[in-house]
Write a structure and sequence with these properties.
Length: about 240
């Protein structure tokens, strides 16, 4: 993949989480119309932006139909059907139901997860995601592309690192309940979205944000691949910007 000449991540630093949410909502809505597709990350970082979009739709400040369909960035493998922690459930609960948005994602209970990952990867590429919302892991992961993920990786089954499992344990009854594997959009799949909007909050993300924006584009920090995207935005508070 060659770096487009105009590739330069726009880093927008805001004073607090509310301003981060407002700026991210602007960037997300600006990249969509009612016929486009929206890529949705789970996790705590995008929640403020999702709430802000719902608020604007309800108040009439944004169109009632913000997108045609939503696509999950990733999904755990092996959770019971309908479990509240499946990313499909989380995204419906946090944003999609309120927006009346139909959401597609990989089937985390598929008998053949590798085949399901390949099928979902094709579906996402065909859908031409207009805006992909992203968070970033403390270890620089993007989606569930953990450090070491090839920069040309496709949508596939991955093993979660212990750091990621520990970070996500807060949503489960016990740490042992956090799945060990997931299906994630690959880095090449993510890079096909027309616009990327990565949101990061808090000092604990500062090292990862710095590596993603200013380090080498390297599998050691999968999020660094966004440096090669022609329309990538990173919206952070001062803490995640490094003070
Ligand atoms: C979520 C995802 C992850 C998170 C990341 C940050 O779908 O793929 O990469 O975006 O772990 O999570 P939070 O926002 O909870 O800090």
């Amino acid at each position: 993949m060659t770096q487009p000449l105009d590739a330069a991540v726009r880093h927008l630093v805001r004073d607090d989480a509310g301003q981060v949410a407002a700026t991210a909502a602007d960037l997300i809505l600006d990249g969509l119309d009612g016929s486009s597709t929206l890529g949705l990350a789970t996790g705590s970082s995008p929640l403020g932006a999702y709430d802000e979009i719902v608020r604007r739709v309800r108040s009439g400040a944004a169109p009632a139909r913000v997108a045609r369909r939503g696509y999950l960035l990733d999904e755990y493998l092996g959770l019971p059907a309908g479990d509240r922690n499946t990313y499909a459930s989380v995204i419906r609960r946090e944003v999609a139901d309120a927006l009346g948005l139909d959401v597609r994602g990989p089937d985390g209970r598929a008998a053949d997860p590798d085949a399901e990952a390949a099928r979902y990867g094709r579906e996402v590429v065909e859908a031409s995601v207009a805006v992909q919302v992203l968070g970033i892991g403390r270890n620089g992961h993007l989606g569930f592309n953990e450090p070491g993920s090839p920069l040309d990786s496709r949508t596939r089954v991955v093993r979660l690192t212990e750091t990621t499992r520990r970070d996500n344990a807060r949503f489960f009854d016990s740490a042992a309940d956090v799945p060990t594997h997931a299906i994630t959009q690959g880095l090449t799949t993510i890079m096909r979205a027309r616009r990327l909007v990565l949101i990061a909050l808090g000092e604990r993300k500062a090292d990862a944000v710095h590596a993603a924006l200013h380090g080498p584009v390297d599998p050691a920090c999968p999020a660094s691949i966004i440096q090669r995207h022609p329309e990538a935005y990173v919206v952070t508070d001062r803490g995640a910007a490094g003070g």
